[in-house]
Specification:
The protein is built from five helices and no strands.
């Protein structure tokens, strides 16, 4: 536990980690998966980013005893590089998790996650194969091919 706000953190200090921190982190992970599976991609990304910020906050509180603990360096100051690391991790990992969980949530549906735009066309490879077979079996196409050869 930190006695004074300006006092440097001791490296041997265990922090205030308790069972409630573990329960909160597991709950946040479950909420991340649920958000990715249930929401639209944009909503899922925002929810996952906010939940990841909560994850960093709870884990920082458990380790250092301060809510800003994930951004505190060994001099007990908020580090800009750690802040950037947390923010870029939220963006990249949040986007990746959104894509993965949205696609997992759309398994078995008619439209893949990437085709949610109005008027988008989903082409099935079986349709292309059937069309190619019909075109090659058409007598007019066979006559054209014989004439060209």
């Amino acid at each position: 536990m930190v006695d004074h706000p300006d006092a440097p953190l001791r490296t041997t200090q265990r922090g205030n980690w308790a069972n409630q921190h573990t329960v909160a982190l597991v709950a946040i992970l479950v909420a991340i998966v649920a958000a990715g599976l249930a929401l639209t991609p944009v909503q899922a990304f925002v929810a996952i980013a906010v939940l990841m910020l909560g994850f960093a906050t709870v884990s920082g509180r458990g380790v250092t005893g301060l809510w800003r603990g994930a951004m505190i360096d060994d001099r007990n100051r908020i580090s800009l590089s750690r802040l950037q690391l947390i923010l870029w991790t939220m963006v990249t990992l949040g986007a990746f998790l959104t894509g993965v969980l949205t696609n997992i949530g759309n398994v078995g549906t008619a439209k893949p996650a990437g085709d949610r735009r109005p008027g988008s066309v989903v082409v099935d490879h079986r349709d292309l194969h059937d069309r190619a077979r019909r075109v090659s079996a058409d007598p007019a196409n066979q006559a054209r091919r014989r004439a060209a050869a």
